[in-house]
């Protein structure tokens, strides 16, 4: 296949994928940096509350990027060699983007928070989607890596299976971060209303520390996915 350069669908898809990668990883690092100030017991509750608001505000970038990474990646497949097989009419790609934007809407409602029926429903729906996608994507990835010609593709897309697995595991790591942060909200609320105590500090510290292995895992997996997407080791497609 002859390479086509210039302003076209493929270049736009690659550009979007790169932008999402940058905002995902960069935003995640910003959230992590803000969390360091929340752990500082020498700062007053007001300063630590500002850090919490910064952390929450910056988190919007990786949250959006993680969701859109899936339809963006499928768009890259559609404009690549696999597109001739699965995306000839374009309707499947449109369906992927509709589903992706619906997930994004649910995720943003959950992000805004609140104790309303819509917010609670969005939180549950977002978790169901994330659990389902993480399991489904890892399953598809394993099949892609083990099958001789997965889905009839004979270009040895093992690298793509590994990239899909990395993305699915990123989603799972994000769910685990949420689980580890469950004690954080009540503990931080007590810090703001009643001041610092050893019990409050232990709860805040423990909650964030338990998140760190999952955060480091996401960073590693995102970098691995980016490397696989650039190198495409073993692929026979040209």
From TrEMBL:
It comes from the Bacteria. Coiled coil: none annotated. The chain crosses the membrane at residues 12-39, 60-80, 86-106, 127-146, 158-177, 214-231. Keywords: Membrane, Transmembrane, Transmembrane helix. It comes from Nocardioides soli. This is DUF2269 family protein. The lineage of its organism: Bacteria, Bacillati, Actinomycetota, Actinomycetes, Propionibacteriales. The keyword Transmembrane helix applies.
């Amino acid at each position: 296949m002859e390479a086509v350069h210039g302003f076209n669908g493929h270049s736009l898809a690659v550009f979007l994928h790169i932008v999402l990668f940058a905002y995902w990883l960069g935003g995640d690092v910003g959230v992590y940096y803000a969390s360091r100030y929340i752990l500082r017991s020498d700062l007053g509750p007001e300063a630590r509350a500002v850090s919490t608001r910064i952390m929450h505000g910056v988190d919007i970038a990786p949250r959006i990027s993680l969701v859109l990474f899936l339809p963006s990646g499928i768009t890259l497949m559609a404009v690549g060699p696999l597109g001739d097989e699965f995306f000839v009419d374009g309707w499947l790609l449109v369906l992927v983007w509709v589903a992706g934007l619906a997930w994004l809407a649910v995720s943003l409602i959950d992000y805004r928070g609140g104790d309303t029926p819509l917010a609670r429903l969005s939180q549950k729906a977002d978790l169901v989607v994330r659990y389902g996608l993480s399991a489904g994507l890892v399953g598809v990835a394993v099949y892609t890596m083990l099958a001789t010609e997965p889905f009839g593709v004979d270009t040895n897309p093992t690298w793509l299976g590994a990239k899909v697995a990395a993305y699915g595991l990123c989603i799972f790591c994000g769910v685990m971060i949420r689980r580890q942060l469950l004690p954080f909200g009540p503990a931080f609320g007590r810090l703001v209303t009643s001041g610092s105590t050893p019990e409050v500090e232990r709860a805040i510290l423990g909650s964030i520390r338990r998140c760190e292995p999952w955060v480091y895992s996401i960073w590693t997996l995102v970098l691995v996915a980016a490397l696989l997407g650039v190198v495409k080791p073993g692929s026979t497609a040209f």
